[in-house]
Amino acid sequence: MTKVRSTRRTIKCALLPLTPCKVFGILLVILVQQVARYSFDLVKIDAVENDYPFRHELPYISTQSQATLYETLPDWLQEYITWNRQERLLLNETNWHEQKYYIQRCLATCGGTSDRLRSMVVKVLLAARMKRLLLIQWEKPAKLEAFLVPPASGIDWTVPEWLAEKLLQHSNETTSCRVGKYPSVQFAHDAGCHVMNTMYHFEFSGGAELYNELRDNDDEPDFDAMYRTIWMLLFQPTPPIQRLIHQRLQKLKLRPNQYNAIHIRSQYSEEELAMPNLIENATNCGLSFAGNLPLYIATDSLNATRKALEYAQQYTRHAKAHVTTDHPPLHLSRGETYLSHANEVVYDDSPDVYYSTFVDFYMLASAKCLGVGRGTYGYWANLVSLDPGCVVKYFDWEQKQYNFPPQCQAPPRRLWNWKKWF
């Protein structure tokens, strides 16, 4: 004991008196320790994000899900994937004109994300029936490849730069044609055009009726049953968006298919802006799901997200939302002007300001049950979800009006607020 006390006294004496040089040395040691600790934390966090443990449960192809996915494919889809892969390998600048193409284009005003992409599943079937390469070509607000890419084992829909130039050069020839919505298979044979262009279109079902009509037989899984599978063959998020999805799930402590979600369009039209109880009733829809699971809230504005989150927290301790001041959510077709309800179309320069559109889509699509209202964005995410039947719809598309089910009109029991008693 005497020796220990003597050592402490020696150290204390060595530090005194505190000269400026000694003070600087002490501060430098503290700074180095903090930097080392911070660096370790960063490495640890990055390692978790890059090795997200539940990645195989998300709606895009992973090593674990690939084998299971291919077991579900009907014959026509297996044949088209094989044919498409072979033709893409042979395609070059010399023989490109010998091929026939079915191109989903976005060169000017193209609608929102759902309007552009919701019908791509039925277009795979159309491309197979017409024996055409299915391509997607966007220019606004950026190439689709800035957000989504085809999985290595899926259907390659990308347009090489050299092919884009060729298609542009020959766009006015009689071998090129444009269809407004869906081409009929007979029209595709009769038209004789090598390059068939189609723009975006608005259809609530996303082409369900046509898909079910063109499938091989009634025993084959229908549009709803096949949507998630074909979507995963077409698209997966780019690495930056995947990282954001993983980060958000980890930050909010959510696991795919073990939380519910609600989507609210508060700025769709003047009707939503004037509706007093829209956010409350829509949030009640999300709170009505059984199982006491966490509730993820996604809206089209920061104010609506905050309001829905504050409301939900009165009834559950597990309400989750991504609230940020970095950048408000943007509509894919209108950029900043959407927030001010302007009529002209303006696009932002950087694709990353639109990442949240795709992050929220995959967050909604990864939920167990989903509440959806105005617009088709939520319905589209529901089609990609594991159980599209677990949904509450609070907007009547036939009547074009809100129609909240009884469970959405009355909130559940409030949480006990212990603070008001102390």
End-to-end separation in angstroms reads 49 Å
Number of helices: 17
Strand order of the largest sheet: 9-8-7-10-11
Q: What overall geometry do the principal axes of the alpha carbons give?
A: globular
Largest sheet: 5 strands, parallel
Fraction in beta strands? 5-15%
Rounded average pLDDT = 79
The string of secondary-structure elements, in order, is: HHHHEHHEEHEHEHHEHEHHEHEHEHEEEH
Structural class computed from helices and strand pairing: alpha/beta
Q: Helical residue percent?
A: 40-55%
Computed Rg: 27 Å
Q: What's the number of extended β-strand segments?
A: 13
Poorly predicted parts: 1-13, 32-49, 335-347, 418-422
Outline the structure in words:
The chain is an alpha/beta fold. It has helices at residues 2-15, 20-50, 63-70, 75-90, 113-117, 120-130, 161-169, 185-191, 208-214, 223-234, 239-251, 270-274, 278-287, 302-312, 355-365, 377-384, 406-409; strands spanning 101-106, 133-138, 148-149, 176-179, 195-198, 236-237, 260-264, 295-299, 319-321, 370-372, 391-393, 395-396, 401-402. The protein has a 5-stranded parallel sheet with strand order 9-8-7-10-11, with helices on both faces. α6 (120-130) packs across α10 and α13 crosses α14 (302-312). The longest helix is centred in the N-terminal third of the chain and has 31 residues, at 20-50. It is globular. Mean pLDDT is 79; it is low at 1-13, 32-49, 335-347 and 418-422.
